[in-house]
């Protein structure tokens, strides 16, 4: 089939939604792919099962408390068991052809930066990396000579239709948004929505954090910032279009009037396959898109008044400096609190807004120029955000959040 030598793949966040879709593709094509390392946060059983069935060389579990259990489960298999956040970074640094970065949140930043230094290609699902430290991240990729391929469906769509030779003729890059479970709701209706309702995404099956981000439209805001860094396009050339069917994933408008789009079923295995096989293509077990059966595709402008998170992200992107880092950290805290039933849906945007203005008035707004800069600003913003949620818990320094 001319696929060339077997590609060695490492999956960071292998037990998550994107991670499992990746492992599914790897398992179907063992002649084409070999698995170098798999990592997870604390789901040892799932990690060990995946590693054994995919014959991975190494694993890493971020939570040190369950590291002994991982070693026990892998005893006698010959699969290496690393532990702790350093273990995840070590796994990310092992030689591989492609590292798939599918950890959720800013926790993925350090391992993904490590991957940029050791792998020629990083397939990036973790958009928070680019929101937290986009300029530094893309600069690190350039210096390491690494290629960053977008897994996020909208960015992958744009990547597929963006003609590098015609960059000067790109008028606009458009990300589509499903609108989430609350499309068409009023602010009044949103006051009482529950975690269960927010977790019921109409089109995509994803991890909890991104599902809530989709319900607030923060996901689209994070994706605008992601696109800004990935494709080096100025904010004013980026647009958002709500498209509830989630069939058209992204569009590029050229100055000759052409509007190029990529279409596909809402299944992450399509963009993941695109990255794993790039620059070739591979087959993926995805339901073919039946346009005649769908009949109608609809598009509408986003409702920024009802869903203020989109505007907050756009403003942070326009402001520059460390505003996007603060936005991301505050949102991670607010979403974790919402998922723990300690914060209402409408308070998510309020906490992000309050944190942004608190950080700005404290002068916490320089653009992160190193990993330490980014992590310091991230930690400071998390503290402020937690203060905005519950002042007493912030004083105890309880600012860790895990999805
Ligand atoms: P998920 O919650 O399903 O999985 C997250 C993975 O990261 C798990 O393997 C978990 O063990 C690991 N993890 C969590 N915290 C960690 C930590 N502190 N240290 C190390 N590992 C940790 O998330 P997901 O939905 O698969 O999303 C992953 C990333 O991909 C996110 O950045 C998300 O925005 C992005 N993304 C997801 C989708 C999707 O369809 N799910 C689509 C586009 C982009
Ligand atoms: Mg997306």
Automatic annotation (TrEMBL):
Protein name: 1-deoxy-D-xylulose 5-phosphate reductoisomerase
EC number: 1.1.1.267
Pfam families: DXP_redisom_C (PF08436), DXP_reductoisom (PF02670), DXPR_C (PF13288)
Binding site for 1-deoxy-D-xylulose 5-phosphate: 127, 153-154, 178, 201, 214, 219-220, 223
Catalytic activity: 2-C-methyl-D-erythritol 4-phosphate + NADP(+) = 1-deoxy-D-xylulose 5-phosphate + NADPH + H(+)
Entry similarity comment: Belongs to the DXR family.
Lineage: Bacteria, Pseudomonadati, Pseudomonadota, Alphaproteobacteria, Hyphomicrobiales
Physiological role: Catalyzes the NADPH-dependent rearrangement and reduction of 1-deoxy-D-xylulose-5-phosphate (DXP) to 2-C-methyl-D-erythritol 4-phosphate (MEP).
Domain DXP reductoisomerase C-terminal: 263-383
Any single biological process term in GO: isopentenyl diphosphate biosynthetic process, methylerythritol 4-phosphate pathway involved in terpenoid biosynthetic process
Pathway assigned to this chain's UniProt record: Isoprenoid biosynthesis; isopentenyl diphosphate biosynthesis via DXP pathway; isopentenyl diphosphate from 1-deoxy-D-xylulose 5-phosphate: step 1/6
Cofactor(s) listed: Mg(2+); Mn(2+)
1-deoxy-D-xylulose 5-phosphate reductoisomerase N-terminal domain location: 9-134
Residues that bind NADPH: 15-18, 42, 126, 128, 207
TM helices/strands, residue ranges: none
Ranges of residues in domain 1-deoxy-D-xylulose 5-phosphate reductoisomerase C-terminal: 148-231
Cited InterPro entries: DXP_reductoisomerase (IPR003821), DXP_reductoisomerase_C (IPR013644), DXP_reductoisomerase_N (IPR013512), DXPR_C (IPR026877), DXPR_C_sf (IPR036169), NAD(P)-bd_dom_sf (IPR036291)
GO terms of molecular function: 1-deoxy-D-xylulose-5-phosphate reductoisomerase activity; isomerase activity; manganese ion binding; NADPH binding
